[in-house]
Amino acid sequence: MHTTELTDSTTTAARTATARVAVAGATGYAGQELLRVLSRHPRVRLTLATSSTAESAARSLPALARIWTGTLTPLDRDALAREADVVFLALPDKAAAALAPALVTAGLRVIDVSGAFRLRDAAQRARWYPETRELVPGVVYGLTEWARPALSAARMVANPGCYPTTALLALLPLLKAGLLAPGGDIIVDAKSGVSGAGKTPTERTHFSEVHGSLSTYGVFNHKHGAEMEQELAREVTFTPHLLPIDRGILATIYLRVPPGTGEQALAAVYERAYADAPFVRLTGTALPEIKHVVHTNFCDIGWRVDATGRVILVSVLDNLVKGAAGQAVQNMNVMLGLPEQAGLL
Question: Of the four, 2, 13, 253, 275, which is 20 to 30 A from 82 by CA?
Answer without folding.
Answer: 13
